[in-house]
Design a protein that fits this description.
Layout lengths: L1 H64 L17 H9 L4 E8 L4 E9 L2 E8 L2 E8 L13
Antiparallel strand pairs: 1-2, 2-3, 3-4
Helix pairs in contact: 1-2
Length: 149
């Protein structure tokens, strides 16, 4: 009778170890999957932001030849009329973007923000250096309230 209880304890401990090993492998596998997915999404958002920047530069050349500028600080996105449509034709992007700061003398974008889903890409130009940053925004809380009169 003692052998049977000992045998049952051994098999229960083996099953428990097997479950722990499988759970660990599952956690590791999911971590690798999400890290890979995040990396691919980051690269995609960065490429799209650079395409938008290049399209804005191409449209700027066209507007400069007509004596106009692509920058209009009175609009939220910082773009003059018709620029967004031209950029969409050239870049074919899915996200939203806006010019935050622009050098009118040199006709150069100094700061730009591009967002696509939860990816946030910022471009900054300072003293001959371009800095691109890609961030993943994780929404944690959403609150919606409607007030009826």
């Amino acid at each position: 009778m003692d052998k049977n209880k000992t045998g049952e304890l051994i098999s229960v401990s083996r099953v428990f170890k097997l479950i722990l090993i499988l759970a660990g492998l599952l956690i590791i596998g999911m971590s690798v999957f999400f890290a890979f997915r995040l990396r691919v999404g980051t690269n995609h958002a960065f490429r799209e932001a650079k395409n938008v920047y290049m399209a804005l530069s191409a449209v700027e050349i066209d507007y400069y030849s007509r004596g106009e500028s692509i920058y209009d600080p009175s609009n939220y996105n910082g773009l003059s009329r018709g620029v967004a449509e031209r950029v969409t034709q050239l870049a074919g992007n899915d996200g939203t973007y806006r010019i935050v700061n622009y050098d009118n003398k040199k006709h150069r974008i100094l700061n730009m923000i591009y967002t696509n889903g939860n990816y946030y890409v910022s471009y900054n130009y300072n003293n001959g250096e371009s800095l691109w940053e890609v961030k993943y925004l994780l929404p944690l809380y959403s609150y919606k309230e409607s007030i009826e009169p």
